[in-house]
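Ticket reopened. Same input as before:
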Amino acid sequence: MKMNQITEELLKAVSDFKGEFKGAFNIRENGGCAGRQSTEHIRIESRKEGPGIVVHIMPGTKGETVYIPACVNQGGIHDLVYNDFYVGEGADVIIVAGCGVHTDDEEEARHDGIHRFFLEKNAHVLYQEKHLGTGKGDGRKRIDPVTDVALAEGAGLEMDTVQLGGVDYSCRKTRAKLAANARLIVRERIMTDGIEKAVTDFDVVMEGDNSGVELISRSVARGNSYQEFKSCIHGLARCTGHSSCDAILVDNGTVNAMPALEASNVDAELIHEAAIGKIAGEQILKLRTLGLTEEEAQERIIAGFLK
Amino acid sequence: MLTLEHIVWNLPDREGILNDVDLTVTSGKLVVVTGPNGGGKTTLAKVVAGIEKPSSGRIIFEGQDITDMDVTQRAKLGIAYAFQQPVRFKGLTVKDLLELSAGRALEENVLCSYLRKVGLCANEYIDRELNAGLSGGEMKRIEIASVLARNAKLSIFDEPEAGIDLWSFSRLVETFEELRQQKRGTLLVISHQERILSIADEIVVIADGKIREAGPKEQVWPLLFASERASLCPLGRENAKIDAMRRECHDQER
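Engineering reply: fixed in the latest deploy. New output:
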């Protein structure tokens, strides 16, 4: 597969690309399709209306991985895409998304990916996405992902989302509705620096009995960057919900955490935690007793925190 | 290998936390520092590790004046320090900590060997985060394991017995004995525990910021546990502190 070098580097960073993808994949580059492959159990096709793809995963499919990375490798491009995932009953798959935006000029490179997941009964998906901005240009690197999730009875989605750095502005919106016995786990890690800004907005509605959600956000705000964490968990049934936002401030970073809970069922058990602070001096000291300098200790603590 | 000369350490509002302390630690020995609470033991350990800087005096380590060296520099010279209150980290695992301590990647069997030395069932712990999911006793034992993984020339343990169960404590005493017999570095242990005192090569008694007694165990032990302790602590109030210390030791042993 012949590929733009910048795109290839972005793919390596955001989707572990090693020259090729095995299994089903769709590579999106500057708003177009740069490669696609379906498999016996996973069919990828273009949307009938508007940009984007529809991914059909057959019931009972297990152990397969779908790669759907998107890259913008130059300024002046605003890529907007709608991707839908229909995951059949009892399927258990991994979906690797990931987005890289790159600009070497003063024009903005932007990707907005709107992903909708429809998981049938007892289906399970591990959804991984990494976001990265690169390039020497002054143009803004912007990524605004939207994730809409509908989990049928007994279905489960684990979402692992990482902002690796270099993204000037991002706004992540995640919406989910959970039927009985469904489970959603979101692990989010965000690093911002300079004057970058990152906004996270979760809204999860648990409609079915024994449904559960776990939202775990860890973030580091360095330089003069700004982060906002908003989450609202709604418990409409006998359910459990937990959100935690842990943030480390370095330099003049700012984090604004606003976790919210709403329960309308007496058996809904909802908890939220939010903690913001600098790296504890005793943590630095412990690592210095192991021979690390203060700077090395700080970097190691941050790397571990965001791991 | 370690010499403290006229070490003084003061707080802004309190002088004499360490008051003209002279101490020599011989290479390859297990030296136990004991004494009443508030006597200056932990401060002494922190001054040696470079966590606290003395107000005056000199510290010589392997012939080199390290008084002005910071904690990182001293660690690189081969001084390791086990905190009395272990530090928790979100995101760092037990494996991460032991590898940082060793300064290299460690095979699973090596990781397990360090954890077994402190009485932990190793495989269950390697990938666990050093966060609130671990009890105080577990954290304490991992802290001690992190110092064992350093293989340092001088390892300082500040009250290693605090917060760990009796079985793990027995395993820890065995580990200290093994290290001493194998001559794997010098051990400086802050402790009130009679069992740790009993395996010492040398015992140092510190009270009110002063070294009250220091010497081979055979010489100091009788003074600690004799009914007549006038030779150890000529002042009556010092005797009272030693009595309290003895009671504390025996209570903990029971």
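The radius of gyration of chain B is 18 Å. Strands of chain B lie at 2-11, 14-25, 30-34, 56-61, 64-65, 79-82, 154-158, 186-190, 202-207, 210-216. Please confirm and we'll close it.
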